Amino acid sequence: MDSPVSQNYTPAELQPDSLLSVGTADEMNTDVLIIGSGMGGATLAWALKDSGHQVLVVERGTFLPREPENSQPTEMYLKGRYKNAGYWYDGSTGKPFAPGVYYWVGGNTRFYGAMLPRFRRSDFTEVEHHEGTSRAWPFTYEDLEPFYSTMEQLLQVHGQTGEDPTEPPHSQTYPCPALKHEPVIERFAGSLRRQGLHPYHAPNALNVRGQNDRAAVATADGCPDETGMKSDAENRILLPALSDGVKIMTGAEITRLITSPDGRKVVAAEARHAGRTVRINAKSFAVAGGAVNSAALLLRSADDAHPRGLGNSSGLLGRNYMVHNSTFFVGVNPLQINPTKWQKTLGLNDFYEAGPGTPFPLGNLQMLGKLQAPMLKSARPWVPTRVLKFMSDRSIDIYLTTEDLPSLENRVRVDGDRILIDWKPNNLQPHRTLVSRVTKMVRKAGYPLIFTQRMGIETNSHMCGTAVAGHDPAESVLDPFCRSHDIENLWVTDSSFFPSSAALNPALTIGANALRVAPSIAQATKS
Known about the structure:
Layout: E1 27-29, E2 32-35, H1 39-48, E3 55-59, H2 73-78, E4 88-90, E5 96-97, E6 127-129, E7 132-134, H3 141-154, E8 158-159, E9 176-177, H4 183-194, E10 200-201, H5 211-216, H6 233-242, E11 247-250, E12 252-259, E13 266-273, E14 276-281, E15 284-287, H7 291-300, E16 325-332, E17 346-348, E18 364-367, H8 373-377, H9 385-393, E19 395-402, E20 411-415, E21 418-422, H10 428-444, E22 449-454, E23 490-492, H11 507-526
Parallel strand pairs: 1-14, 2-3, 2-15, 3-11, 4-21, 8-9, 15-23
Antiparallel strand pairs: 4-5, 6-7, 10-17, 12-13, 13-14, 16-19, 16-22, 17-18, 18-19, 20-21
Helix pairs in contact: 1-6, 1-11, 3-11
């Protein structure tokens, strides 16, 4: 599907020489080519801006305009104003579906709710779940911790330690104080505490002060934000990198990576730009197009030296696709209006890890941005809008996430230009248990009417795992620093590298890891 939005917008703060124009050239040169401008690509570009190397980010989308329609749910959810990712296909049925991804500068972070938790220390270890084992990562929480702190500074994260029993240690405090709960959410938090639970102020990168600010960004969980108060990969990371020497080419889709005759290095990328093919030569290549598109690109780049796809000697490229088991959970009190503007300030991890009464990990509770009738209408088109408005005016809205497990059968495949997703959810019993427990909690808090919807194949904003990192080349696609085991100048810096999915939002971990691996890319590019 094509977006109705103008493709010619550029942010006022963008330096004129940062946006590359190919002109009539058929070939370009750079030192480091970064494919994708979401959290992994933008953060890597920022980390390399002072490396002395020429850094070029190539993004298939363009800059998303900052316009009043950004914050209008009718435009976003009913008219599909910013949907531009076309269709993927369910591998089991062949049916197309519109994926929950977006091709704009800044990637999916333009639409996220800026919820930025650190993964828990246990997430980096081998964990037994109800239906199997969550794999250990090839590095520890302690290895990543300094980079978490840097990302929190970059994104101006608001948070508070000491409330959540699962919170891992921080070497630095959050740069901004936690966002306060609005009155309805504070009452909900009080009910949870009286039930013996430990609600915490969720780490969030929404830079609001008073209620007027909160009202201006009330739809920023799921919609773009035209105010600049939501920290995303474009405004907080990429634009500063572009002002400091990094270059970007937009509207250019990388369709293939080309290797040297011996297959040991990538020598160039082919980009489809303005109806023609442009060759981009580089010393180092970092793929950060998202777990599905990165795998698809490497699979499509198969050649004589790599007949199953680049970096696929293990046969694992595209496999172990994970997206979380997630449920939208709505509790309604017909007698009480919920006037909350920014609801996404509360989280709960009491059931995140196994413990007394919880033999297996269940997952995370976090608030959604306050739902409005047009957001519900897209999921329940047959329900009258007035009924949906009555519900959403009186609801609290929650997102429940349980870890799914890596499976060789859950995978990304390509068929020409088509992307096929083979996906069968697993580890569902803990998720059902989580929904049941939260139902009882929410009813005790005064919301007797409960409505739930578990997310399907099209909800993949937390996708990961298609090019897992590990020590053993036979059991992983990438090494611990996310370089291909097979190709010496190829890295993957989005969530493809995750050996397991955890049960928390992945954005901060993607960015922290990009900071972690950047020095190895800079060093390798010198040689």
